[in-house]
Automatic annotation (TrEMBL):
Domain FAD/NAD(P)-binding: 209-314
PANTHER family hit by this protein: 2,4-DIENOYL-COA REDUCTASE, 2,4-DIENOYL-COA REDUCTASE [(2E)-ENOYL-COA-PRODUCING]
Keyword Transmembrane helix: no
Ranges for domain NADH:flavin oxidoreductase/NADH oxidase N-terminal: 22-160
MF term (GO), any: metal ion binding
Keywords: Flavoprotein, FMN, Iron, Iron-sulfur, Metal-binding, Oxidoreductase
Protein's recorded name: NADH:flavin oxidoreductase/NADH oxidase
InterPro entries membership: Aldolase_TIM (IPR013785), FAD/NAD-binding_dom (IPR023753), NADH:flavin_oxidoreductase (IPR051793), OxRdtase_FMN_N (IPR001155)
Keyword Metal-binding: yes
Gene3D superfamilies in the record: Aldolase class I, NAD(P)-binding Rossmann-like Domain
Organism for this UniProt entry: gut metagenome
Pfam families registered for this protein in UniProt: Oxidored_FMN (PF00724), Pyr_redox_2 (PF07992)
EC number: 1.-.-.-
Cofactor(s) the protein needs: [4Fe-4S] cluster; FMN
Lineage, highest ranks first: unclassified sequences, metagenomes, organismal metagenomes
């Protein structure tokens, strides 16, 4: 303790109320001296009564931010503290935390300093990012999972091509789950992520005509990639709406964010190379009449009823019917 007190006097900073802050201040000062011409962006981890563990307390954050600025930090990146190993706490899945949930904290820090402040946390769309910037709660925003879903997020946002962005749905199934299991980072929405050298979508040497049966996520993704490669696509979907089972998956509480993926894929179907035949079953006669070069089956699945005793009782219903809204349930 005495050694730390002497250190505080050496670096000539005032009001250091917690001795554990000394290391950070010493480190910043040493880095500033070693690389005077480089930008120092400090990861400013904050803990609130509701969120995070470890890190600087929310009430102390503005004062400590001023100390860091005085010590030589050029920028502050305000994020939720997490020293627990629980990644779902700082990288929350869909429906768990509100959008931009740390912007209020970054706003308080920004008011205390004159250096640029960035924030992160469930900032999904360009509109969300712009709202935070316009409110003065941050000078910059950080996008993490969104760049895994679409590496061109920033470029498309700058060009105002918002509908072309493959937005993250916060499922955490390719990114956070893989990190926790020490596996290769990926994204369930973006098959190219992590495989840019081997899965690059290049123009086909010989454009062909493809018939795709099924307008769910798999069928639409196949159509999107085929059209991007230069092929002509005819897509059959027996329902009058695209989306397949994802339309059902979006219905339960806190799952509506998955709809962003169906909206993106549906937008991708609006191109000249793709002909949609909705509300129409694909029969052998119809397919043969089109004379396609290849046929892709993406018909998905259907609900299966096990032949068990009591399955036909009036108190038993299909979960898919509940999600569709064709069956109403009450009580427990």
């Amino acid at each position: 303790m005495q050694h730390k007190n002497r250190t505080i006097e050496q670096i000539n900073l005032e009001a250091v109320w917690k001795t554990e802050l000394v290391f950070a201040l010493l480190l910043v000062k040493a880095l500033r001296k070693a690389v005077p011409d480089m930008i120092l962006d400090y990861k400013f981890s904050v803990v609130t009564p509701e969120r995070g563990k470890g890190g600087i307390d929310e009430a102390d954050a503005p004062v400590f931010a001023q100390m860091l600025e005085k010590a030589g930090v050029d920028m502050l990146h305000v994020a939720q503290a997490n020293h627990t190993g629980n990644m779902a706490d700082t990288i929350p899945p869909m429906g768990v935390q509100p959008y931009g949930f740390f912007a209020e904290i970054s706003g308080k820090v920004k008011e205390a300093v004159s250096i640029p402040v960035s924030t992160v946390g469930r900032i999904i769309t360009p509109e969300m990012a712009e709202e935070i910037l316009a409110s003065g709660k941050a000078d910059m925003v950080g996008i993490g999972r969104g760049l895994l879903a679409d590496a061109d997020w920033a470029k498309k946002a700058a060009n105002h091509d918002f509908c072309d962005i493959r937005l993250c749905i916060s499922c955490n199934k390719g990114c956070t789950d893989k990190i926790q299991h020490r596996e290769f980072l990926s994204c369930v929405l973006n098959a190219e992520n992590g495989y840019e050298g081997t899965r690059k979508i290049l123009p086909a040497e010989t454009p062909k005509h493809l018939v795709i049966i099924g307008g769910g996520a798999a069928g639409m993704e196949a159509a999107r990639v085929a059209a991007q490669k230069g092929h002509r696509v005819t897509l059959f979907e027996q329902n009058t709406k695209l989306g397949g089972q994802l339309e059902l998956a979006c219905v339960p509480p806190r799952k509506e964010e998955m709809r962003r993926f169906t909206e993106y894929l549906s937008h991708c179907m609006k191109q000249d190379a793709i002909t949609l035949r909705l509300g129409e079953k694909a029969t052998p006669e119809k397919i043969l009449a089109l004379n396609p070069d290849h046929v892709i089956l993406a018909v998905g699945a259907h609900s299966f009823h096990f032949p068990i005793k009591g399955i036909d009782q009036p108190c038993v219903c299909d979960a898919w019917d509940i999600l569709r809204g064709t069956t109403q349930v009450y009580g427990k």
